[in-house]
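Consortium newsletter contribution from the modelling node. Members have asked for a concrete example of what our holo predictions look like. Here is one, prepared for the heme C complex that several groups have been discussing at recent meetings.
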Amino acid sequence: MRLTIFFRLALLSFAWVGGASANSELYAPCATCHGEQAQGQRALAAPRLNHLDPVSLLLQLEKFQRGWRGGEGASAAAQQMAGSVALLPPEAAWPELVAWIADQDSDVSPVTVTGDRERGGTLYRQFCAACHGPRAQGNLALNAPRLAGGDDWYLLAQLHAFREGQRGRLREDRAGRQMRSMAAALPDDAALADIVSWIRAQSE
Ligand code: HEC
Ligand code: HEC
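And here is the predicted structure:
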């Protein structure tokens, strides 16, 4: 993970030198799918990004570029994103790009997933809170991204992708494999929607 450490250092020094100066040009090619404010666009299966921490964004961009996400056997959506890595600026500019994304703001997208919120909360505390935090705010020390504020349709799709082995299937992808085994441990498919509807309620 030498690359990751480099990114984190670069990110820190960037923030330290000048703050997150807006550079929307780096992001321009992404807006077609993820929207002008990185608010997401469901019709293209492109999720909201602006609620995520810069470090989480970097980790995922790195995975798409390495083919750990979006390779053979991945969902059509993940393959579409993997096909878009050519639009990324040179790696030296990634910290600036993700700082800009994390600086944007938008409302959480409308509720599209219905589930038993109460059961979801119970399952969340049992299976998820240790890594993603009691209110789904994420825990960078564990590489666990923020979930609160994410699109409910995207969270559900990712849980299915983990559970069905489309994401987190490579041996090198330790964080992905960890998450895959958590999704697989859930008692039934309804649990996925139940947990997502609880997570969605955290941003109300
Ligand atoms: C052709 C449409 C398209 C373009 C262009 C595109 N993306 Fe994506 N992106 C997607 C889709 C679809 C997903 C969801 C992948 C999945 O479901 O696994 C995604 C996922 C992501 C994720 C993962 C989010 C998460 O929560 O893990 C990041 C980060 C991301 N994109 C950043 C970018 C950036 C930065 C650019 C510009 C260089 C970009 N994308 C351009 C379609 C696109
Ligand atoms: C052992 C720690 C751990 C536990 C427990 C855990 N996760 Fe995760 N989760 C992670 C990590 C690490 C990632 C990032 C995976 C990656 O890099 O691909 C992740 C990613 C995710 C994502 C993808 C987010 C995105 O933006 O793409 C979702 C959704 C998610 N977790 C939901 C859950 C839910 C729901 C539970 C409980 C059933 C859970 N997680 C339990 C560590 C954990």
